[in-house]
């Protein structure tokens, strides 16, 4: 087996970002290690100050296949376009109106979770319809 992949987000509110992405892609909060009833209990035992205990959060694929998403608080806000982004594939194998309806419906669902539509990308020679969105902290991602 090769290396494992984790996607890490710098953000202002790790818990809120983790909750958004868990709901967006069907992930769940990562459970604390065996022997601990909560992350707070573990962090207290480790001596992490209470004001720092919400500085990180992680969500995982319940099936254990897709990469872990890790969110860490940073002091600075987002200042430019992402150099890397996530694609949320919801219309694999669909074409035409069915593809567009599926993508639009997912975009509406994600907007209800706190995302924002940035632009719609119409089909061209080497591309298909997709919607570019931003998560609650402004990180771009595509729904296609």
Describe this entry's structure for a reader.
The protein has 144 residues and is α/β, with parallel strands linked by helices. The protein has 2 domains: 6-73, 2-Layer Sandwich (Signal recognition particle alu RNA binding heterodimer, srp9/1); 86-143, no CATH class. The chain is 26% helix and 26% strand. The chain is built from 3 helices and 8 strands, in the order βαβαβββαβββ. It has helices at 14-25, 39-46, 96-112, and strands at 6-11, 28-29, 56-60, 68-73, 86-88, 116-121, 130-134, 140-143. A 4-stranded mixed sheet has the order 1-4-3-2, with helices on one face. Strands 5-8-7-6 form a 4-stranded mixed sheet. The radius of gyration is 17 Å and the shape is elongated.
Topology, element by element:
Elements: E1 6-11, H1 14-25, E2 28-29, H2 39-46, E3 56-60, E4 68-73, E5 86-88, H3 96-112, E6 116-121, E7 130-134, E8 140-143
Parallel strand pairs: 1-4, 5-8
Antiparallel strand pairs: 2-3, 3-4, 6-7, 7-8
Structure at a glance:
Helices cover 26% and strands 26% of the residues.
The CATH class label of the largest domain is Alpha Beta
Low-confidence stretches: none
Biggest sheet architecture: 4 strands, mixed
Count of folded domains: 2
Through-space gap between termini: 30 Å
Number of helices: 3
**Coarse morphology:** elongated
Query: How many DSSP E strands?
Result: 8
Order of helices and strands: EHEHEEEHEEE
Assign the CATH architecture of the largest domain. 2-Layer Sandwich
| Strand portion | 25-35%
**CATH level-3 fold name of the largest domain:** Signal recognition particle alu RNA binding heterodimer, srp9/1
Radius of gyration: 17 Å
Strand order of the largest sheet: 1-4-3-2
The average pLDDT is 92
Structural class comes to alpha/beta
Q: Percent of residues in helical segments?
A: 25-40%
